[in-house]
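name: query_chain
kind: protein
chains: 1
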Amino acid sequence: MTSSTRVPPTEITGLYGTLVTTMSRRMLGQVPESLGVMWHHPAVLKDLMRLGRRAESWNRLDPQLASLATMAAAGAIGCGFCLDLHYFLARDRGLDEAKAREVPRWRESTAFTPLERRVMEYAEAMCATPPAVTDEMSAALLEELGAPALVELTARVGLMNATARSNVALGTRSQGFAASCGLPPLAAPGGVPSA
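structure:
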């Protein structure tokens, strides 16, 4: 099998490796190529997975808003792997699949509420270089969500920003999670379905 990643995956071995691959197969139905890439430095993989699991316990931000924000951040960075994975996870977590599918074209779509649009705009603004978050954006979200949820939103987007940029830099591509469970393809900007 030829790898599309910039760092070729290595064999995942050992007791911890067995645990990681078993969890991946159970959650995703497959072992993503990115795990083999990250296995070159298991301590980094372990710490990133630990942070991701801890972030899943955060509960001040509505789960639907959290999902839309992380997907918007992934889209802003251009991480197809992250978009595909979070679309799959939205379905797995009982979130609105139709909205998750529309995230890549959220500005043109009529599927979103004004609050959802503000959350995705904030996520994209955080991912810009340099960041483009304005006082007005923050004030509106602070008023609607409250301080704890805005802090969580910011942390989730920051975490996705780091993850997505790492995946893009390493050449990690979509693994087809959404297609493997029968979800329609993600919408593309301009209304053309993505591959």
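note: Residues 191-195 have pLDDT under 50 and may be disordered.
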